[in-house]
Amino acid sequence: MDPMLPRRYRVLRARPESAGVATVDLAPVDGPPMRFAPGQFNMLYAFGVGEIPVSISGDAAAPVLTHTTRDVGPVSRAIVGLKEGDMLGVRGPFGAPWPVAAAKGRHVLVVAGGLGLAPVRPILTHVLANRADHAGLTLVYGARSPQDLLYADDLRDWRARPDATVEVTVDHARPGWTGRVGVVTTLIPRALAGVAPDSVTAFLCGPEIMMRFCVQALGQIGIPPSACWVSLERNMKCAVGFCGHCQFGGDFICKDGPVFRYDRVAARIGVKEL
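Below the sequence we write its predicted structure tokens.
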């Protein structure tokens, strides 16, 4: 299927995740399900409103297309407000994926902050479905508050598995919260205790300042930036590098990313002018 041609998708299920955040499961009205790789994104068109890029957050092996979106503008507000049976236009997939295949035989570390769990969720579903192909799996996930945590059912199921390590923390606790409080960087040494640093491939998604400090924390325990991959989802608009909105030094995030090896972009992350 030509990724530039929009296709009609019907909402099979719509569910709220937290305040202003919702997940929709989509199925094509005609034609086969979309094939994509973890880390890619689609252009979602709310009819009569507009189009925005949104990471694919579902299982790459499933026939259903899943997206999690936060209400931050007219288009995302329309998507968050979709109900079962509503229609949505979809173009894609676009972008460079997470190099999950290259992590075969290695310990996979996933670090996510806030809504950043959505783009890395396909990594988790893939690794858990092919657990014997990897030396280990660790998820470190942080959110502002317990009410902002995504995928409550998934988190419960992942934590119950004996073949995965899941650490969750929040910035601010609420009454009744019995979990950890603090930034995700404080959990990394604990989560990787006993894991050989040279066996780890790290995938990170969240606020850029969080990813910078996480890579520093990983470096302190012997995991180099060359073993870290980040998703830089900022300013994307056209998905093919024509409009220039997402130019990032010599790269276009929509076309050359959004997934980059950290040492390739380390000197540019945090530069205000970029």
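The CA atoms of residues 268 and 274 lie 7 Å apart.
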